[in-house]
Amino acid sequence: MQQWIISGVVTRESLISRTGKTWKRLGDISELTQYFTIADEARNKRH
Questions:
Q1: 3-state secondary structure of 5
Q2: Contacts of 1 (CB under 8 A, 6+ apart)
């Protein structure tokens, strides 16, 4: 998941579910925040 976030395969708006019944935005999962921050910083350096 971390590599997908950093490479831009998934975004904060992407949804994830363990069972297919309840879905959660990746951006709402605190454990992933650091990876989205890294991805944002990398994209900002390229522009």
A1: helix
A2: 10, 26, 32, 35
